[in-house]
Structures are given as C-alpha cells and as structure tokens.
Design brief:
SMI1/KNR4-like; 5 helices; 19% strand; globular; alpha+beta; Knr4/Smi1-like domain-containing protein
Length: 143
Amino acid sequence: MSFDDTLTRCIARWQEEGIPLAPPIGAVEVRRAWERLGHPVSRDVIQLYGRVGGCSDYHFDEEYLWCLWTLSRIVEQNDRGSVTGVQFCDHSIQVVTWELHFENEEHSSVWQVLGRDPGDTRMTSPDLDTFFRTYLDDPWRLL
C-alpha cells in the first residue's frame, strides 16, 4: 500500500465520522510555513497536506481523540521554534503531541513529545506512512 492509499483510508475514515476537514494546501504554502519555523520539509509532509489540510476548528476523531493540525495551528503552536522538529498533531487536546523530524527529502520521522525540554522525545514511526497505518490499525500503539 502506498502513502497515498493510506491517506485515502484516513480521509475516508474522518469523513465517515463527520470530522470537518480543512482543504488541501499547496506545496509552496507548506514549504513557506516550514521555512518560517526554521525547518526543512520532506515530500511526505507536502503529500499529506496536499491531500488534507488538517482537522478544521480543533475537531478530532471521537474514538481516539486525535487531531491533525491545520497549517495555521502548526505555525501558532510552533512559534517558539523547536530545535528538534515541527509539532503537527495531538491526542486528547495536547495531552500527547507528535512532531516531525526531517530525515531526508523524501521522509520525516514522527516523534512523541514527552516533556517541555528540547529533545525530550521518543520516536514513534520512521515516516508518516507508518504513522498513519498504525493510526488506522491500532491508534493506541502510538502512545
């Protein structure tokens, strides 16, 4: 299964749950946001936001209480400037957050933020495709 197939399954699930989704975002705008935050952006991040712009107005999936942030929320939440990555989603209204670490032009890894200290993180997934496949199959494993 490709990352595009994984995203199609995620979007279908969110639509079935009635989660309002923000419209897709162009690559130029995603790159501009990541540059503003001082981080390079990988193709899988651009692909993600090119398919779905996040969960609108702080909505989340009701089973797992998980929310994919919109680009404006990403910029707002990361305005302090993280040394390690860009936070992009959360569980239970930021009880748990995850951030993206640029690995190479193709992929960013996903890390759970454990505390307030820079670098206080734990790798959750080596790339976004693995992260979202886990989310679809058993989201509690992400915690």
